[in-house]
Amino acid sequence: MAVFSEYVTFSSKGPAPYPSPSLTEALPFWEGNGSLASPLYKDSYFSRSGATAESRHIFLQQNRLPHRWLEKKDFHVCETGFGTGLNFLLCTELWRRFAPFDGFLHYTSVEKHPIPRSHLQEIHRAWPPLAAFSQPLLEHYPPSQAGRHSLFFPDWRIRLDLILDEAARLASYLPKKVDAWFLDGFAPEANPDMWSESLFDTMDAWTAEGGTFATFTAAGFVRRALTKIGFDVERVPGFSGKREMLRGKR
After folding, report:
1. Tell me: the pLDDT tens digits for 184-241?
2. Pairing of strands 147-153, 4-8
3. Helix (H) or strand (E) holding 51
4. Buried b vs exposed e over 156-173: b needs ≥16 C-beta within 10 Å?
5. Reported pTM
6. Where are the beta strands (DSSP E) in 39-193?
7. Which domains does the chain have, with CATH numbers?
């Protein structure tokens, strides 16, 4: 399958080169209990046994995908925390099954600690049903160089903008308003830098009318911040016994 790639750096003032921040790659490992652990954050990405079901429950279902693709054919998802790319793979799988024939999916994801390709290849072997989507991604997966790496998959009608940078600089890269947010960084207590005022300011400025978000966390300060910027926030049951998670609509 043909895939077109592009690499660009941005500054907060527009499309101009800027000194690249130092990127530390993530090297997660499978623990004995089946969790994919992050040595950087002392937290887990997910459980091997429930990863795909968890992702579908939290990010796809709570953002009402694929139903909203019938309402808006040119759709923009923005994710905080690309991680293993699992959310992208599952969103792509759903898009290929249910997208309007003339629709287009723009998927933006920001990641401060990218996982190198060789590591991702090992992780993706845990999801054989997603191999048809994983293989083209891995073939064109970019090096760990700060900036915006764009991959265009014309056969799928999908553009992936992978932002390797701080979440605080996300607004400098966004091309248009966001229809659905996947807030998927590590837990706020493990990764407070991502759950900052700058993230909520970005969401305030860049959420489309009727835009939605979903996140695994139910932290009170997250709920209050999202309410403050105009989301109707709901606490709903989390995945696999987790009492609560958050979702909302602007």
Report:
1. 877 788 888 889 999 999 999 999 999 999 999 999 999 999 999 999 999 999 887 7
2. antiparallel
3. helix 51-55
4. bbbbbbbbbbbbbbbbbb
5. 0.93
6. 43-47, 74-80, 104-111, 147-153, 158-164, 178-183
7. 4-17+25-249 (3.40.50.150)
